Amino acid sequence: MAFYEHVFVARPDISPQQVEALVEDITKIIETENGKVGKSEYWGLRNLAYPINKVRKGHYSLLNINAPAAAIQELDRRLRINDDVMRHMTIRVEELSEEPSPIIARKDRDDRRRKD
Predict the structure, then answer these.
(1) Model pTM score
(2) How many CA atoms lie within 13 A of 8 on its CB side?
(3) For this UniProt entry, which segments traverse the membrane (predicted)?
């Protein structure tokens, strides 16, 4: 099995709870195909780099996946069908990091500065 980092952007008009349900669905797809989802992070509602169909914001999420290639192909197929997902990208990596992503680390650092 290989290691993957998967990031997706969901429509801004759905709630964070619906994004969490989408993450659970992705986890079920991966586990059905004999894979595992390690760390999952919700990055929140963020501005997009460029508008997609006149939409300027989206819910970002990151998942670390340990799965065979067939599981990733099935995940890609299902996310292309899903109307709630605007964009998604899966990248194969050498190893999975258990540390917080730079997005979460920066957010935590900014929160600490505001408290001081």
Answers:
(1) 0.85
(2) 22
(3) none
The residues pairing with 8 across neighbouring beta strands, listed in sequence order, are: 61, 88
51: number of CA atoms within 13 Å, CB side? Answer: 4
For 8-43, the pLDDT digits (tens) are 999 999 999 999 999 999 999 999 999 999 999 999
For the chain, the domains span 2-115
Fold of 2-115: Alpha-Beta Plaits (3.30.70)
Q: Which residues contact 113 (CB under 8 A, 6 or more apart)?
A: none
